[in-house]
Design a protein that fits this description.
single chain; 145 residues; alpha/beta; 5 helices
């Protein structure tokens, strides 16, 4: 199953989702991520994923293309802006929306901000695990040919 994680800037949440899907997917999921724009990867996202043993440092911050939509079986929007901007998808492509908090907007001390990144990392991990369980149960069998 090919999954595209879509966010506004492809810097934090969608990058984390791609990393978790690659790590936990066990070959069940081919994952990519993109943004409505490409803002570059957030160093804090890279750091908190590294804490969890997931290296996203080599993933690219990519701007969405029409070809990515044609490639994907499932498009997961991970922020409200991406959900609103997501165009009409090709027939047979499923869409899910995960309303994740943007850790890049966190304020406070460096440790408080990093705690927000860690909370988002854990939320994304839980959602990716749930996606995998649903895929293993055959929920997406009509899209993953």
């Amino acid at each position: 199953m090919k999954v595209l994680f879509l966010c506004t800037g492809n810097s934090c949440r969608s990058q984390m989702a791609e990393g978790w899907a690659r790590t936990l997917g066990g070959g069940l999921i081919d994952a990519r991520s993109a943004g409505i724009e490409a803002h570059g990867k957030n160093p804090r996202a890279i750091a908190v994923m590294a804490e969890a043993g997931v290296d996203i440092s080599r993933q690219e911050s990519t701007r969405l293309t029409d070809g990515m939509f044609r490639w994907a079986d499932v498009v997961v929007t991970v922020c409200g802006h991406a959900d609103e901007q997501c165009p009409l998808l090709p027939p047979g492509t499923r869409k899910e929306h995960w309303p994740l908090t943007d850790p890049a907007k966190a304020t406070g001390t460096e440790e408080q901000v990093m705690d927000q990144f860690r909370a988002t990392r854990q939320d994304v991990e839980r959602r990716v695990q749930a996606l995998l369980r649903r895929a293993q149960a055959g929920e997406y069998s009509e899209v993953a040919g």
